[in-house]
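[audit] Reproducing an earlier prediction to check determinism. Same input, same settings, fresh worker. If the tokens differ from the archived copy the diff job will pick it up downstream; this log only records the rerun itself.
[audit] input (247 residues):
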Amino acid sequence: MEKSGRLMIEAVGLSKYYGDFAAIEDVSFEIREGEVVAFLGPNGAGKSTTMKLLTGYLAPSAGTARIAGYDVFTQRLEASRHLGYLPENGPLYADMTPIGLLLFFAEARGIPPERRRQRIHELVELCALESVVGKPIGKLSRGYRQRVGMAQVLLHEPDVLIMDEPTAGLDPNQIHEVRETIRRLMAQNKTILLSTHILQEVEAMATRILFINDGRLVFDGPVDEIVRSGKPMDEWFRELSGATAAV
């Protein structure tokens, strides 16, 4: 059955070469409005490279990437208005407080002064930052820093969110807190591409999986397809990775 909804993320024949090495090659997929898609693959498979190409952080060797219909390379400003990108270990200013950081980026993004305070209030509530808004970011736990980063990328109310390992290095409580934030975003009908190594997150939040291995897309299908197969997710992951069971 044909999927409905506006196309929000498009990769068309994306390739990135470093000399003779192909970081990714001929990667194509589409993600529609409101979809939450998990982007999986072993370390070094090309996940982060693909995400950087989708956000315009890297230029492709071949192919095209579009966000909300805008080419991220030839229409960069238009695409960026629709996009929020949270890289793994995204940079934050350690001496600033969350409220100071959000005010700084709200001004930098050109959010009207009459809207800034209200938008920051909304994000403090959405990302559960009430107890730390006046503390230096450098003194916050990794989980709170990740939530501050998430609030920062949501400031301009983007339709599309691309998150690279948002729970990497967090303890179980912090993972739960970040996961709850993502669920609240899902309720707002955001389009989300989420890279993760935590397979429980895939079953809990995503409806679809993209799997990349050795720089090529090797699976694009619903989470339910794997669940119905009865195969444990970690076993399925190892098979698609080409890993063999230890004997």
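[audit] rerun output stored. Observation attached for the diff report: The longest helix spans residues 172-186.
[audit] end
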